[in-house]
Amino acid sequence: MGMLGNMFSSAxxxxxxxxxxxxxxxxxxxxxxxxDRKSRDGERKTTAPAAAAATKPAKAVKHPEVTGPADAxxxxxxxxxxxxxxxxxxxxxxxxxxxxFGSGQYFLIRQSIFAVLGLCVxxxxxxxDYHKLRALTYPFLLTALALLxxxxxxxxxxxxxxxxxxxxxxxxxxxxxxxKVAMICWLAYSxxxxxxxxxxxxxxxxxxxxxxGVVMILCLKQPDxxxxxxxxxxxxxxxxxxxxxxxxxxxxxxLALPMVYYLVAGSEYRMRRIxxxxxxxxxxxxAGYQIAESLMSFGAGGTTGVGIGDSHQKLLFLPEAHTDFxxxxxxxxxxxxxxxxxxxxxxxxxxxxxxxxxxxVDEYGTYxxxxxxxxxxxxxxxxxxxxxxxxxxxxLVLPFISYGGSSLLVNCLAVGLLLNVSRPRVxxxxxxxxxxxxxxxxx
Length: 443
What we know:
Layout: H1 2-11, H2 34-55, E1 65-66, H3 72-101, H4 106-127, H5 137-152, E2 157-159, E3 162-168, E4 171-173, H6 175-193, H7 201-220, H8 225-242, H9 246-265, H10 268-278, H11 289-301, H12 326-358, H13 363-387, H14 405-422, E5 425-426
Antiparallel strand pairs: 1-5, 2-3, 3-4
Helix pairs in contact: 3-4, 3-12, 4-14, 5-6, 5-7, 6-7, 6-8, 6-13, 7-8, 8-13, 11-12, 12-13, 12-14, 13-14
């Protein structure tokens, strides 16, 4: 304190050396020049509005300016997978299609039509600024839920013991695929609005978990256990990405484990799948038939494969060869190297999707890209893991490659949104509750 006192005292001038002249009330101050007075008055007039404007909040710009094209690597990867899928669907289904429909090109023609439509959907979705699509979030979600409700109450088209499709003429729509993308859009929209309160249980966590729970119950009513699990995983991962409390997420996961166990252990056909997964060749002629035949396909393919069109398992030995187990046919005809190249393509898709999320202009784009990347990556991983015997049999198709019109269209729609987010943008000033980021710099 003594040192501080000395510093302040040394900063004061000594009274004996400085004269302080005080003006009296009657003393007249020198008049300012007219030119100086006018210039100062002008300064006050110009700076006052500027200061007032500075205190006002910045006006929100909802649609940042697009400054570049979509991710070319991601686009090329998806187009390559779709084209490869057409070839493999024809190779895997020709014999079955000829026997059942009298034409070996039956599935080839349909898959080609859906591929063209899907790529058109992808291009259109990628060209419309995803910020403008926010207004369609709730109509899209409600429509998807209505379609899912139709199948859940038993009005859907039944196949394989589950009513998961709605027949519209020759087209079979699978609402569970649509509702996954609708949920991702809703979660991205809702989470981006609640950035400041995302760590709150009542605002940031509970509403999203309850919404996901309703959708999962509708999926289980079909029944579609795989889609229900995927929606739960997507919800928790997006909550984690948004910054929700890890304790809430882990707690919800712990509460869900007994329910998952009950759903598996209480279902005879699910327990058969678990048993077949653990010992596929022991139950080769019953519950383990599909997995055993799939593993035999990979074994027959070896390193380089038997060649496209020369698979033996597709000769009505392997069920669902052109849908759920098309990766086994790929492993047989193209071998380990061909299978590995396909896996690398899906890994590249995931990497570019995460890149789009990291470089997104706002939280809405980040959550949208993360959810879609997780949706496509998880579905691909699950299908491939089932084919090689790493997971029990599940009815999930391989994105862009397996036969299926509604699945291909939905996946192309999802990639269109992902490509949209990947387009570089600048000049983003977002509304309250969201932060401001720009590709390549700060907006």
